Amino acid sequence: MIDDEEAFRHRQVTVGGSSLHVVESGDSEAFPFLFLHGWPESWQCWHQIMTIASRDVRAIAVDLPGIGESTGDPTDGSKGQLATVVRGLVEAMGLQNLTLVGQDVGGMVTYAYLRMFPDLRQAVIMDVVIPGIDPWQQVLRNPHLWHFAFHSIPELPEELVQGHQGEYFDYFYGAISVDPSKITAEVRALYAQAYSTDSALTAGFNWYRTFPVDAEANKEATNQAAVATRVLYLRGEKEGGDLDDYLGGLRAAGLSVGAVLVPNAGHFTQEEAPEDTWRLIADFSAP
Fold first, then answer.
1. Which of 31, 71, 126, 137 is close enough to 234 for a disulfide, judged by CB 3.0 to 4.6 Å?
2. CB burial string 239-262: b at 16+ within 10 A, e below
3. Strands 255-262, 227-236: parallel, antiparallel or unpaired by DSSP?
């Protein structure tokens, strides 16, 4: 584990039948920011952001259910179920005036949370397309995202990836980041460990297997009232895709959202450009 034990506080929080691994830094009386990771990472991807952010806010990160040191009842992988677990964590920790920040799959969970529990102070969605929301169909046709379909196959991904997590994850760090060295060998080993068990691999692949369920839920949610919570959409400038397409889709779905590109970053913005990423979030969060 890469952190300063004096600066990072670890604990397990019980939510239903799960024990969630929670890491905090900063003043416990400051505004809370809860960070949700994506695939194939863990809470550790927020380490640099939390180090910077904790000067001004209460920074909190969690291993999503089934990943790393979060154990207990698994979810089915749907973002609605994951959002419900996150809500349980928010209530168990008594977090108020919360900003929820999600990257990759964590961003999908953040979107579901916004729809289900519209009482956040604000939210940040990073580096992700939302199932069922434009440009979802366009993204699904992108041949470079072959792993969406592969991860959705029952059982086979677990059989092929088990024992080869490091090699498999390395492919993605190299393919969709600007500077793969920003994700160090030490951190990569931690991510491989976080998905080392069969159950952890299944938890991660289930996030993909439930995309059709997520898409239907998100489409239905567009018939509800618009979301009043302020939302920022962040995307690495080198990740590809037209930012206006993502912004337009979210606005058409009823979000009050602005968008900005993170300079010199690909998909893993919080690790590739932590200073700029936090600066943009902090600017958005300023009164």
1. 126
2. beeeeeebbbbbbebbbebebbbb
3. parallel
How much is the average pLDDT of 244-271?
Answer: 97
Q: Which of 15, 61, 16, 17 is nearest to 41 (CA)?
A: 61
With a CB cutoff of 8 Å and minimum separation 6, the contacts of 141 are none
86 three-state secondary structure: helix
Q: How confident is the model at residue 286 (pLDDT cuts 50, 70, 90)?
A: confident
* 222 HSE (CA, 13 A, CB side): 15
Q: How far apart are CA 217 and CA 176, in angstroms?
A: 28
Rg (CA), the chain: 17
The whole-angstrom separation of Cα 128 and Cα 104 is 5
Query: Domains in the chain, start-ordered, CATH in brackets?
Result: 9-285 (3.40.50.1820)
What pLDDT score does 118 carry?
Answer: 87
Task: Tell me the β-bridge partners of 60.
Answer: 24, 34
pTM score, whole prediction: 0.97
**DSSP readout, 211-275?**
HHHHHHHHHHHTTSPPEEEEEEEEEETTS-S-HHHHHHHHHHTTEEEEEEEETT--S-HHHHSHH
Angstrom distance (rounded) from CA 195 to CA 278: 27
Question: What size, in residues, is the chain?
Answer: 287
